[in-house]
Amino acid sequence: MTVGIEERFWERVVPEPNSGCWLWTGALITGYGVLWEKERDGNIYAHRFSYELHHGPLPDGLQLDHLCRVRSCVNPDHLEPVTPRVNTLRAPDQVAAVNARKRFCSRGHAFTYREPVTKNRRCRSCLTLLRRVSYWRRLGLSREDAEARTLNPRPGNWRRVGRWAQPSEAN
């Protein structure tokens, strides 16, 4: 006699009383529980199976987000269908989520400019600096010399270069 997929699912679920999570004790792939489904001739994620068992099919274009942040949790109350973008931005360790939360560049300038084509956020100050260094590089200077010329130009020329440069001390 073969055991049904729902029975096999419940054999591998252990409730955790403190957090309310239902922990998956079966096979894991990158922390997510997986369950063999004969009809599909392949694995199905255990949290997705649990959600579909309790709430019906997952709407097209949505992913399940673990609200408890425990990948092996299969409690349907801890799962929320969201768009892939929302799912990525909610993750605390994803590079895209970390960068989306940033408000200032590495030099401390506020992100005030969004590039028209790529929609990447930039700060105008660093973008201007990058363009000036690129100009000097096209003229044949090394990167170090181009940065030095951009950041510390000749004393008589400092106002035209930008606010990074300061006039040199008169000796």
Structure description:
- The termini are far apart.
- The strands form 4 sheets. The protein has a 3-stranded antiparallel sheet.
- The protein has 171 residues and is an alpha+beta fold.
- The chain has helices at 5-11, 46-55, 84-90, 95-101, 124-138, 143-151, 158-161, and strands at 13-15, 22-24, 28-29, 32-37, 42-45, 63-66, 79-82, 113-114, 121-122.
- Helix 5 packs across helix 6.
- Rg, Å, rounded: 27 Å
Euclidean distance between termini CA atoms? 95 Å
Helical percent range? 25-40%
Give the strand content: 15-25%
Secondary structure class reads alpha+beta
Which outline best applies? elongated
Count up the helices: 7
Q: How much is the average pLDDT?
A: 82
Quaternary state of this entry equals: single chain
Low-confidence blocks of residues: 155-166
Enumerate the strands of the largest sheet in spatial order, edge to edge or round the barrel: 3-4-5
How many strand units?
9
Question: What's the story with the biggest beta sheet?
Answer: 3 strands, antiparallel
Secondary-structure element order, N to C: HEEEEEHEEHHEEHHH
